[in-house]
Amino acid sequence: MGAPVAINGPIGERAITCSHSQWSTGAAEQSERVRAESMGSMVASVEEIGAAAAPQAVERRLGELRATFESGRTRPLSWRQSQLRGLLRLLADKEEEAFRALHDDLGKHRAEAYRDEVGVLTKSANAALREIGKWAAPEKVWVPLVAFPASAQVVPEPLGVVLIFSCWNFPLGLSLEPLIGAIAAGNAVALKPSELAPATARFLEENIGEYLDATAVKVIQGGPAVGEQLMEHRWDKVLFTGCPRVARVVMAAAVKHLTPVALELGGKCPCIFDAVAGRRNLQTSVNRVIFAKWSSCAGQACIAIDYVLVEERFAPTLIKLLKSTLKRFIADSDQMARIVNGRHFQRLSNLLKDPAVAASILHGGGLDAKNLRSIEPTILLNPPLDSAIMTEEIFGPLLPIITVKKIEDSIAFVRARPKPLAVYAFTDSAPLKRRIVEETSSGSVTFNDAVVQFGVDTLPFGGVGQSGFGQYHGKYSFEMFSHKKAVLRRGFLVEAMLRYPPWDEQKIAMMRHLFRYDYVRFIFTFLGLRR
Amino acid sequence: MVESRAAAVQELRARFAAGQTRPAEWRAAQLRGVLRMATEMEAEICDALHADLGKPKTEAHVHELSLIKSSCLFALKNLKKWMKPQKVPAKLMNFPSTARITPEPLGLVLVISAWNYPLLLSLDPVIGAIAAGNAVALKPSEGAPAMSSLLAELLPRFVDGTCIKVIEGGVKETTALLNQKWDKIFYTGNSRVGRVVMTAAAKHLTPAVLELGGKCPVVVDSNVDLHIAAKRIAAGKWGCNNGQACIAPDFIITTQAFAPKLLESLKKVLEKFYGKDPLLSADLSRVVNASHFGRLKGLMDEEMVSDKIVFGGQRDEQQLKIAPTIFLDVPLDSAIMKEEIFGPLLPILTVDKIHESFGLINSMAKPLAAYLFTRDSELQNQFEGAISAGGMLFNDTSIHLTNPYLPFGGVGESGTGAYHGKFSFDAFSHRKAVMNRGFAGEARARYPPYSAPKLKILKGVLEGKLGDMIQAILGFPRGK
């Protein structure tokens, strides 16, 4: 086949094409093993195993989702709760398989896989089970006296059949976290995992149907062609997590049926590193920067720290501490996830090929094209601001440090660039914190830590501007996949004659007062007592 | 002096970047300006509405001016509260930390308005955009030219014209505006143009609110106060711009047994409202223009429906007037039942049992509003559960849009997003999550090199086990 655009592809502005022959050796070996295993797998029919689902199969399965939703099956709270419990059982029973899939796809250590994906999902599903009654309950709202007798409510209802496009870097988390919200809201769901994380995609396809209601939740595997086919259909909502270039394609396709979309994109998340007081706090800050850059999927995360801004005079201290702490934390390559595939490896090594960029490498920089684990944690100092590494989202283990004269200059630096998903700052200064919140715009702001805001489900998670729109996590997941229906009930008891034609000045005057909820004036006018 | 469009957008961008639209005082001053305009320029506004639509003065006041004024007052009253950051509980597992949600303006907002309520649908979204601290460009509909030029002339006199601009024009100008980069687009109109707006929005990944329409059904049960029901249906249909309103009742569904009674009641009410010759009544808006008149004439004259007229049918092409016209049992595949009518034509469809109306409504696209007249609360509950619509109203029509505590917007083909009251403020804001962590309680368990003891503690923390959280905070496991 030709070289189609990768819909669930990499974060990055360059046109990158996908073709099955470009698999690296490691990945090809893995896919052999998985194919052998799946020969003996249960339940699924031949056309639905492993690689892309055939077009007719996709159509049939979508039809089933729509029929299931129309039947009302997904509406009762009891059904939704049983699905959430099913998900929790899946995560508990199949934890080892999940760790294995994440290790196959990304080389994630099980601690990272638990901390960032399995554990977070368990927390989220439990929270949804606890809160679902509250979220789904109609909310009474105030009605003005003029409408008496009347009652008004906002009633949440499911949108219908929703589509979730997941991404390869947190292939379990970015699939199941939105799924939790979609199910809690009472929808039927199609989940399209990224084909660039095939072991996890297979894990999902094999287990979702086992633990959840297979007529209402379906995993549809495949590459860009399947993605395009899916977008030909009418959905009641589409959530896309990925890069801006493909997001445009998805949003343009959504126009056909006026499908509402939510986009979770990325950006270059800056970390403003102020001179933090005290050795202990400074060390803690450096720990957290390393955690947010290298310990989260080797920097391949939408909320990873992309680059650091620090005052000139403080840069040497920061760099020294980064180097020494890195040595302790990431002593060998299996403490860090690997680069997902050969194409991304190439992209990252190209970032370093620029001579001016290569010259700015202070630490690391080593890589071996035959080994996807071999990109060392790399620190650069002041690469040119117009180089690719400073204009594209890095999504890898390379950390540019940009120096500024005064730390406050960072604010203008960040403002001059597209709005990122997160802004981070390590600082003791309350005025600096206030300025950062007020003068920069981003999906979120976190002080003195990074990435952890992801696990706080009382905070909405999502972007703004180029980093996307729509928010989820916690109750926001529920709302993302719901329609808030306004319902007003009136009675026949009281009838305001002044509403109806034929019109006259007195009726107009009375209505003016009513609309201002000025009941005293209304009564006067009604009784014919003018001012 | 009319500045060029590109220069206008550039100024909006510069002013927003300079922070001019952020302070609460500025926002309140603009809202007061709009309020003053709606108060001092009533006569001019009513004249423009009459010129564009033949809108009766009462409708101009009740449906447009009053609503704008109460919208301003509501926003002014609540502005400080809406702007305040909202603290949220930060989880124990992130101890110590605090978290809040801070609303911030999106930036540059484009509001594209419609012709049928040209004041309301222009200024109501603008009010929300201003309250949220944005810079705004308003493109009034060229279908209501008198109001468009009135807004272009008046608004700069009452508000800060450097940050709130009216840009007039037709398809060409609107297309050019859509090609600029906006931080939010708010469109009110039909789904065909809605698709054009969404396509343009996709280029810059701009979020959009689309307030579209649909065929708003009215189901009438026999268990009602018939006279009141007929009045409320008539007021919602012909008292709202003569049916040219997105939430006007589009068609009625009732039982075969009840239809004759309903029809009689409607006829009586219509004669009371508009007299024996409705084309002479000053209380009926005219059809907006010749093109729409032709469209409605086509719907009325279609062969399979023209013999189903049971009331009305009079028309005056010179005056662009069509009398309230009722049809009985038109075929479902007639044009009048396939597209949004947006005019004074009201089909009544009959079914055997009232529950059959549910299936009929669900076979169509989701409407902006669905109405049911019945005293039977069981039927009401069933309707609420079975029918999806932007909004729903029992025993009345249209008035739910005046309640600022109810979100107003569509679902499915009738649109996406909502506004009114605080929902307007939210539509034009970004809810920024802000988390503030302390340095104490450094959890070694989160960092590599990873180990089984660390994993055990992480599990406990994520499962909310207090013992593990304490260990994490105290820096266990010791050593690495």
From TrEMBL, chain B:
<dbReference type="GO" id="GO:0006081">
    <property type="term" value="P:aldehyde metabolic process"/>
</dbReference>
<keyword id="KW-0520">NAD</keyword>
<dbReference type="GO" id="GO:0005737">
    <property type="term" value="C:cytoplasm"/>
</dbReference>
<comment type="similarity">
    <text>Belongs to the aldehyde dehydrogenase family.</text>
</comment>
<dbReference type="InterPro" id="IPR016163">
    <property type="entry name" value="Ald_DH_C"/>
</dbReference>
<keyword id="KW-0560">Oxidoreductase</keyword>
<protein>
    <recommendedName>
        <fullName>Aldehyde dehydrogenase</fullName>
    </recommendedName>
</protein>
<dbReference type="InterPro" id="IPR016162">
    <property type="entry name" value="Ald_DH_N"/>
</dbReference>
<dbReference type="InterPro" id="IPR015590">
    <property type="entry name" value="Aldehyde_DH_dom"/>
</dbReference>
<dbReference type="GO" id="GO:0004029">
    <property type="term" value="F:aldehyde dehydrogenase (NAD+) activity"/>
</dbReference>
<dbReference type="InterPro" id="IPR016161">
    <property type="entry name" value="Ald_DH/histidinol_DH"/>
</dbReference>
<feature type="active site">
    <location>
        <position position="211"/>
    </location>
</feature>
<feature type="domain" description="Aldehyde dehydrogenase">
    <location>
        <begin position="7"/>
        <end position="434"/>
    </location>
</feature>
<feature type="active site">
    <location>
        <position position="246"/>
    </location>
</feature>
<dbReference type="InterPro" id="IPR012394">
    <property type="entry name" value="Aldehyde_DH_NAD(P)"/>
</dbReference>
<dbReference type="GO" id="GO:0009737">
    <property type="term" value="P:response to abscisic acid"/>
</dbReference>
<dbReference type="Pfam" id="PF00171">
    <property type="entry name" value="Aldedh"/>
</dbReference>
